[in-house]
Amino acid sequence: MSVSVHDLELPAVELIDLDRTEALAVLAEAREGHWLARTPMGYMVTRHEDVTAILRDRRFLSALSLITQMQGIDESRFLERRRRSILSVDGEEHARLRRLVAPAFTPKSADRLRPFMHDVIDGLVDKVTPDGRCELVEDICEPYPIPIICELLGAPKEDWKLFSNWATDIFRIFNNDLENDMDRIDAASDELDSYVRAMVEERRSRPADDLLSDLIAIEEEGDRLDTDDLVGLAEAVLMAGTDTTRNQLACAVALFTEHPDQWAMLAERPELARRTVEEAMRFLGAVRGTVRITGEDVEYRGVLFPTGTLVATSLAGANFDDEAFETPETFDITKERGTPQMTFGSGIHFCLGASLARAELAEALPLLARRMPDLTVDGSIEWKPPTVGIWGPARLPLRFSPGN
Ligand code: HEM
Q1: What is the secondary structure of 86-101 as a DSSP string?
Q2: Which atom of ligand 1 is nearest to the CA of 62?
Q3: Is 312 helix (H, G, I), strand (E, B) or coil?
Q4: In contact, 285 and 315? CB cutoff 8 Å
Q5: Whether residue 312 has its Cβ less than 6 Å from ligand 1
Q6: Portion of the chain with pLDDT greater than 90, in percent
Q7: What is the CB-side half-sphere exposure of residue 346 using CA atoms within 13 A?
Q8: H-helix or E-strand containing 61?
Q9: pTM to 2 decimals?
């Protein structure tokens, strides 16, 4: 006999006003008490094992589309545009999209872009090394991902600024002020939509060496992506692949300011890049959680989750679970941890761009370590409020030895 989750006595977790250290302490305490916790919105899982299991359990559906509904928006054009996005669909529709796009997002296809990534980050660092100081977020992290997404899609350099503006406006979705931001979000989405449609037309007649051409060419058992699918994917990639990478890079560098010996080691031993990325994402992930909703009555570990129950999965909690990681509170880029870090999620919605993001971070971090030695914070780090979904430093002023 299963017990309804609503009838359980559970530790209460309220993270909204807490800084990172306080939040991790609350999560650790909740993990000790029960595998589930109660939050003001619903429930939360904080252990690595349960976070993984729930994200892999297809009865728990993606709740991303609810962000808009929870803000009281029911404008049909806005919702329609995102309803079919890979980020929010589930079931067969999602499986179809994933099946069709997966071949274009392999580690091998991300590796094709590594020389380009290297040049972009090197060019950004060139501008700041003579001074020996920079504000990392504005000077390096903000501009880094857009050229890469443009190169991936096949958009030329003169259009980078357009993409950057569209990304900024579309990200307003997460600013909690949809009523005022709706017009700008719609205008940016419309422009991106027409731009990508024109690109798709062009690539259909003249294929190039880029993601859109690859996606157009993919065919599986007679099924293909149509123009609407391709436009939706371009928006999803722009939305999911820009702010995440920026914030993750800034989080990683902020972390290294507390570990100067490991920064120096990374400069000396760039072959540690792969482990560094995993350890930095485990220790200080830019995405700290995601949400699922039950689409039916679900029984899991003897607990009944009635239809419509919201379950938050704490990726940050899972990344600090001492059942999964030995000494989780130690940051160590030389340590091969046997358990996967959770900042890319898990299961069917596991980050589609993980290989790309890993490559971007692995190209950037050793290069920054080599060219910005003796790194220190120039003043103090300003963090984004803990309420934002994709989180990291808002300002990261740095000093380092100039001229490298
Ligand atoms: C370090 C940077 C990144 C982080 C931390 C990150 C994190 C995540 C997470 C946690 C999810 C799963 C969300 C959920 O289960 O609800 C996800 C999904 C996704 N990510 Fe990333 N991501 C990053 C970079 C990228 C990049 C560069 C791209 C672009 C290609 C991308 C594209 C996507 C897409 C399309 C999805 C949806 C996949 C699906 O629902 O099937 N991400 N990402």
Answers
A1: TTT--HHHHHHHHHHH
A2: 16
A3: strand
A4: yes
A5: no
A6: 69
A7: 21
A8: strand 60-62
A9: 0.94
Residue 76 pLDDT > 60: no
Pocket flag, ligand 1, residue 89 (CB < 6 Å): no
What's the confidence (pLDDT) of residue 88? 79
List pLDDT tens digits, range 279-296: 999 999 999 999 999 989
Q: Kindly give the distance from the C-alpha atom of residue 129 to the centroid of ligand 1, in angstroms, as a whole number.
A: 31
pLDDT value of position 82: 64
Q: Which ligand 1 atom lies nearest to the CA of residue 97? A: 41
- Please tell me the distance between residue 241's alpha carbon and the centre of ligand 1 in angstroms: 7
| Three-point CA angle 99, 79, 197, nearest 5° | 60
How does DSSP assign 272-289, residue by residue? GHHHHHHHHHHHS-SB-E
Tens digits of per-residue pLDDT, 298-346? 999 999 999 999 999 999 999 999 999 999 999 999 999 999 999 999 9
The structure tokens listed for 83 are 């309803």
- Encoded amino acid at 240, one letter: A
Give every CB contact of residue 125 below 8 A, 6+ residues apart in sequence: 140, 367, 368, 371, 372
How many other CB atoms are found less than 10 A from the CB of residue 263?
Answer: 24
Q: Retrieve residue 24's tokens.
A: 């991790």
pLDDT at 41: 86
